[in-house]
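ok posting inputs for the adenosine-5'-diphosphate job
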Amino acid sequence: MGKTQKFDHMKLIGQYAGGHRHIITLGRFLAGVSAVMTLIPYYLMWRIIRVAVNGDNPDYITAYALMAVGLIIGALLVYIAALLCTHIAAFRVQANMRSSLMKRIITLPLGVFDEDGTGKIRRIVNDSTAATETYIAHTLADKTVAAVTPVGLLILVFAFSWKIGLICMIPAVIGFAVMMSMMGKNMQQKMKEYQDALDTMSSEATEYVRGVPVVKTFGQTVHSFKRFKDCIDGFGKWTTEYTLMLRFPMTGFMTFINAIFAAIIFAAFIFTKDGVTNANILNIMYYIIITPLVTIALTKIAYSGEAEMNLIDALKRVEKIMEIKPLGEGASNVKPADFGIEVKNVTYRYNGAERDALNNVSLKINPGEHVAFVGPSGSGKTTMAELMVRFFDVTDGEILIGGVNVKDLPSSYLMKQVSFVFQDSRLIKKSILDNVRMSRPDATEEEVLEALKKAQCMDIIEKLPNGIHTVIGEKGTYLSGGEQQRITIARAVLKDAPILILDEATAFADPDNEAKVQAAFDEMSKDKTLIMIAHRLSTVMNADRIFVMDDGKLVEEGNHVELMLEDGLYKRLFEEYSKSVEWKVGA
Ligand code: ADP
Ligand code: MG
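and the output
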């Protein structure tokens, strides 16, 4: 262990522990005391054996035995006290970590919660803090014991017959060397891979469960969740490789530390070569008793090393969240002059990505204009929409709403001006009323109903047992993907913001839903700046202006008729799209 981490985990734990730091120290001290108390009976045992071998007064045996029992009970009580201390501190550290994480998480850019980020964050908040708790509550005390015991043992082992002691230590040293060899850098890396794999599985599992309604509605097979299956398979493969990698070091370690016994027999032969003396018998019996302790102590050290790697990995994950910079809060009192949007030379690159998601894009959307973004998947349409509402901050360039840089607008103000419906907008496990009301908590029931009507949701409400008070996801009340989407549209209708962003918002809609969704959009986008992203090019044909994106760049712009004349990417996309529609109809 030792050198592999420059990462000062104890300092970090100390920061989260605050005043409880001293309780941790007290707990470790008590654990050390208990370890010493546990060792003394072994010395007493040696005395007992000596009394027996030499045929001294047997009353001594009783006295030593009582002392030993007293010490063992005492050691146990002190150990309990130690655990009490470490547990109190551990719970405090966990609580402090979780609350600082949650405080940080609510300030993070919305973009962080995109894609499958939520499952990962949940795991860090739950599991990484729990790992820290376990480490402080249990491992720290054990680690102190594991550090004190070998020192005491070494004294005990060498005190009586250093020669036998030395022979006993040979297998222990070899075992330890083998263990060290597998604890190197590679191990920390493996531990990280292991945690990463768990993270990925966790977020894929969340996606999978969330996606079940879609699977059911569209009659897809579970095999559509290929990513989920892939990551489970990958994990299985990784685990097998990992186990195989450890098979030699681990068997080596186990064999050697358990071979200490054999060493004693070997030693016994050597030392009784010239005749058996009382002193020989005493020492050899003593070593037979004490060597299992060496084995236990070494095993404990090995496992505390593993727990420490786990802890370091957990702490690093927590720190990673704490290091994400919150977006600076805009403080300008200047209100936008109107709700036009201007994008000026905007470049954006995701953290850690190798290419720009958007590259030097400039465009202008007039107030009240209905525009559409089209382009192949991955061309940057979603990124464009997200930057406009400041899910992230641009890497370069500027985005202005009504002449004011979005960075200068207070986030609460900006959020009030924009409604968005995304492909994966989701409902939470609450009533329809509460779900719709999320966009405007002070709305009355009548207003919510009005919004549901405008979003063409009344047919959904009518078939629910308690109307808008029905709790979604309870008692088997599930909505199809298309239906959920219509409810999220009602949410946007209720908000009634001057800028409306629809990203693949019809993606889930089956033909029956689609007409309704389209009608809802027409209704809600009157007099509003509308930004629409759609795969189904039929929905964008009527837009005032269409921006065609390709590989992070704006390559064409104009209305449908103009773009069809241009014979460029749009025309190609449109022809492909028409073909696929014909193909579907034909089929
Ligand atoms: P579109 O919506 O047009 O399909 P996106 O805006 O989602 O495209 O993505 C544009 C590019 O940015 C793609 O190359 C995509 O892989 C990349 N990208 C999108 N989201 C992320 C992310 N969170 N981290 C890294 N790269 C991303
Ligand atoms: Mg997209």
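notes: The CA atoms of residues 198 and 401 lie 42 Å apart. The chain has two domains: 2-322, 330-416+534-587.
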